[in-house]
Description:
Layout: E1 2-5, E2 8-11, H1 15-26, E3 31-35, H2 39-43, E4 50-51, H3 53-61, H4 66-71, E5 73-75, E6 77-82, E7 85-90, H5 91-94, E8 100-102, H6 105-119, E9 123-125, E10 128-133, E11 141-146, E12 149-154, E13 157-160, H7 167-170, E14 178-193, E15 203-207, E16 210-216, E17 222-229, H8 239-249, H9 252-257, E18 263-277, E19 280-281, E20 284-286, E21 292-293, H10 301-321, H11 331-353, H12 367-382, H13 384-395
Parallel strand pairs: 1-12, 2-3, 2-13, 3-9, 6-15, 13-20
Antiparallel strand pairs: 4-8, 5-8, 6-7, 10-11, 11-12, 14-17, 14-18, 15-16, 16-17, 18-21, 19-20
Amino acid sequence: MKKLRTQVAIIGGGPSGLLLGQLLHKQGIANVVLDRVSADHVLKRIRAGILETGFADLMREAGVASRMDGEGLVHDGFAIAHNGVSTRIDLKGLTGGKTVLCYGQVEVTHDLIEARAKSGQETFFEAIRVTPLDITTDKPRLTFEYQGEEHELHCDYIAGCDGFHGVSRQSIPANLRTEFERVYPFGWLGVLSDTPPVDHELIYCRSERGFALASMRSHTRSRYYIDVPLSHKVEQWSDTAFWEELKLRLPHAAAATLITGPSIEKSIAPLRSFVCEPMQYGRMFLVGDAAHIVPPTGAKGLNLAASDVSTLYRIMQRVYLERDTSCVKLYSEIALRRVWNGERFSWWLTRLLHRLDEQGPHDNSGNSGERFTESELAYLLASQAGRSLIAEQYVGLPYEQLP
């Protein structure tokens, strides 16, 4: 067995694990990244593309922001279309100048993988049977197999950035963790196409036919979504059928200018809300999807992972640069405050923009629930206070500092 040593072992080579590794590296804190899949597989994951300022600032601090700043699209606002009538949420005007950045997760991951390779940091893609051991001691370790050889990685701390189905959360005894989950009765059918976006900003749509989102990855690449029942399969939806249904859900002005084309990726993503408490166990910390999942409606998934990264990064700085370990125990408490806020906002916006058939207090048929939602959304969009409430949450709350 080959024995290795590092300071922070990072399970998961997606954007959160790679960003944490790059930030630690900049501070001289040694780390090793492990992932069960190849780098090519990681780079093929089509995910979110709206970055809060906090995420973008972390990329800059990590020294990997040149392409993001050069190619990313700054968004000052977005539109919510309610039964065909669009209302612009002026992010910049309603939040004192804050904006979001449109830059795809695939591009973020590409930049981080390239930077890690250039710096010579140790990375094990296609590492199998990764097993965290001795997590509650002061000498945690990981065992794994890489290229047919058994390895043992000794470390001071473990960051579990390996997603919902990863080994990290499962390494916490079931009786010591509480999991909260809600699975939604629909998924998002998404299409990626090399066509110009229908608008320079995102359009979220609630219509009689269901939800739709017009998004983008660049000036020439678009990402569109409609909600469909979980029973639907991608094969049921031809490109023609998708474009026709999307047009019926978009505002008339947008539908009239929509440019369609062949899909280059098409998939159905189920929606769920999920939180695991606590987010740390001994010397292992859960980061991102390993601890929490949100519906994509509020663009919070990757951004909540970034706030976890920021908190853990600041803790590790204090541990290694200031020799202060008293803050280690604060990780879960600090991270969960922002996680629950993001979960609440994502659920709330999902409820407002989708037809959930929830019952109201006056009608067991569920009709009054729909009426309440319609009324609530109409009020919010007509009120500056309501639009400000949406804008403040959408651009992201400030990261909580360590005490």
